Amino acid sequence: MTKKRLNRDAKWGFQGFPYYQMRMDCDDFHGLVSIIHLVDGDYFFWDMPKAGRTPVCGKGMLWLQLIPDGLHRAITAHFLPPSREVRGVTYEKSVALWYVDVIDSWGFDDDGTACFRDLYLDVEFDVEGDVLVVDRDELDAAYTSGELTQEQYQTAIAEGEAIVRDLCADIKKTQAWCERILALARKRIKNDDHVFKRNV
What we know:
By secondary structure, the protein is of the alpha+beta class.
């Protein structure tokens, strides 16, 4: 299993960007919350079946990452810049895309940055109605090779189905939920309320 750090300093190269991480317990959410401010960088797009060319990262965007207690998922909401205009296109939504990693476990590296162990299966969705369950082939290969136990394999499949059921059935509700958590996290950051920070 691959270990992924929530500041995304490995694959994405976000190590120089402002990063915040905190424990949150409120009516909306119990678990770990992190925020990455993308203060620089060219735009990178994914082609979604219905939404078309969708921005994933780029200057002015923000990644809100959520690891809820008791579940096997790490949710990333890719927030658009406040202007919601990217390269001449105005977006009528605050979140361009959600990407949810199915995870085995999570914890903290020696430097305090949260990390998780990836169970390969992922779910991508957006406000246009795209819902994609991806990397099932990688999950199957990891199980066939003996890297994953039968329990881990079955957990990944069940969690993928639960993510679709929990988050994709009502996208507007999911978007509003993420916006509320982001607002609370920003308030915590402003008040310096038990927030772990890097590069700020």
